[in-house]
Design goal:
single chain; alpha/beta; TIM Barrel; eight-stranded parallel barrel; 10 strands; 15% strand; AKR; NADP; oxidoreductase activity
Length: 323
């Protein structure tokens, strides 16, 4: 099946492919590797590329996209590219310069989606993770509604087609949705979401407001030292997922990805392994039964691998809310 046809309509009329290629690095790999694997992902059929300023590899991702446009594999409009506004740029006057910096690194004229990476505003400056004297995130006091207005201006300037948020709880999202004078609703909320953290309440909330939920960490087991809680079980070793995978002659990873797509979630598949990148596209080749879906729903344990504990004392820390 052609993944290009598998798209969801956003509330601003644009379309997002339901399967995305996640380009943050799971381990310390040379940045240039991002160039090779992104080119490969586009060659095998990925059209949705998810990246961010903080991943520090946009220059290579941009190079990969441009080389695949240059060799005729794709046109610019075939690619859906997401970038993210990092925490140190949430002051309204820093938003457009931050997006322009990403565009310069990418050497692209626009991004398809620009999202607030996280509601935790941090002290502006050179450090990506500025720390206070207690080793916690050095907070900056910014009204997220003002940040949002600056994103709306970026959309109106044609620097991004769509705008959204990431790692927001329902109350933070509601604050934007209920903002007086709102011009554009967030098209999405990108959050950690997998069978051990299925986000069913947040998903229902998002659906009721025509906001697409985008799942990162959908395979639950990327062990990134500085972000991760390593005491949690490996999702892909779960016996229930294993049994369903065996029944469909698929891998547990593909079952976890397929689960999201059937719930109406846009899912990011992150891998720097070429065989797995190719394999992830097989998510369109099978369908889970209602019983399979119910069994996977039953795995929810509210386990959060990416708990952003460095920001746990921040007034906007999102995970004190149930959803």
């Amino acid at each position: 099946m052609d993944p290009k046809g598998q798209r969801v309509k956003l509330n601003d009329g644009h379309f997002i492919p339901v399967l995305g290629f996640g380009s943050s690095e799971a381990k310390e790999v040379p940045k240039s590797e991002a160039l090779e694997v992104t080119k490969f992902a586009i060659e095998v059929g990925f059209r949705h590329i998810d990246c961010a300023y903080v991943y520090q590899n946009e220059e290579y991702i941009g190079q990969a996209i441009r080389s695949k446009i240059a060799d005729g594999t794709v046109k610019r409009e075939d690619i859906f590219y997401t970038s993210k506004l990092w925490c140190t740029f949430l002051r309204p006057e820093l938003v457009r310069p931050a997006l322009e910096k990403s565009l310069k690194n990418l050497q692209l004229d626009y991004v398809d989606l620009y999202i607030i990476h996280c509601p935790l505003s941090a002290k502006p400056g050179e450090a990506l993770l500025p720390k206070d004297q207690n080793g916690k995130l050095a907070a900056d006091s910014v009204d997220l509604c003002h940040t949002w207005e600056a994103l709306e201006m970026c959309k109106e300037a044609g620097l991004t087609k769509s705008i959204g948020v990431s790692n927001f709880n329902h109350k933070q999202l509601e604050r934007i949705l209920n903002k007086p004078g709102l011009k554009y609703k967030p098209v999405c909320n990108q959050v950690e979401c997998h069978p051990y953290l299925n986000q069913s309440k947040l998903l229902d909330f998002c659906k009721s407001h025509d906001v697409v939920l985008v799942a990162f960490g959908a395979l639950g087991s990327q062990r990134i030292k500085k972000w991760m809680n390593k005491n949690h079980p490996f999702l892909l070793e779960d016996p229930v997922l294993g049994a369903i995978a065996k029944k469909h002659k698929q891998t547990p990873a593909l079952v976890a990805l397929r689960y999201q797509i059937q719930r109406g979630v846009v899912v990011l598949a992150k891998s720097y392994n070429k065989n797995r990148i190719k394999e992830n596209l097989q998510v369109f080749d099978f369908e889970l039964s209602p019983d399979d879906m119910k069994a996977i729903d039953g795995l929810n344990r509210n386990i959060r691998y990416y708990d952003l504990l460095i920001g746990s004392n921040h007034p906007e820390y999102p995970f004190t809310e149930e959803y």
